[in-house]
Amino acid sequence: MHTMGSDTVLQTSRSTRFPIRYIRAGEGDDAVLLIHGLGCSSLEWSENIAFLARTRTVIAVDLIGFGASEKPAGFDYLARSQAQQLLALMDELRIPRVHVAGNSFGGKVAIEMTDLAAHRIQSVTLVASAGAGREAPLSMRISTLPWAWKFLPAPTFSQFRQGWQGAFHDPEKLSEDRVRQKFEDAQPPEAQRSHRLTLAGQINFWGFKSADLESLERMTRAIRCKTLIVWGRQDRFLPVAHAQIFQERIPHAAVKIFEDCGHAPQIERPEEFNQLLEDFLSTA
Hints:
alpha/beta
């Protein structure tokens, strides 16, 4: 796993409703906010931060309930609420406009940010983003059943690793260090609660909730800023067909499909992803 650079600084917000841990790297008027997906953290951008920080300010967050951020009982864990807190963080950091890139659930949060404050979003990059269609992994759908968290045994480390390997076309790209950190982050009861509530807010046994998808369709059709859609052809979590749905809703968007790649192109194909995102941000 790549280092994130010697100038990377771990910080915690002071003025958001709940403390948000974030990584800050680089300097520059141009800023990019990196948002991870469900069950993840800013670690998901470890292959990208140093490269992007050569020419701009990079902020990679742990969403509320994940990583090292607070995991409060009094938070609803909806994507819109996460988006509101990230806009408050941008206020605290005195970043008036920002490029936003989100992977999976993080893409959904990015879409919500464009709806809440379109004038503040310089560009949006959706990396295998949730929000285009009903399809969701079976394991997630089962875990939304009322009895699932009470009666299903917690996964062993080996089972946990196997589950996350499904996010990759090449499971060797999921390093032991990465999966161990994710496993440790998932153990505290409050982390399990935030994961469960985030799932319940968007998914039921049939997949992503219809009302939520309808709202997200409205939001994506309203996006006017420069947009990049990135997907892995072999994504087993959210099908690559969702990229076309997003493109139909955002006709001006650029689309890049990585071959031999799964749900996390920024990890599985970091060199190509980094150059793609750098070129896009430079013209946005």
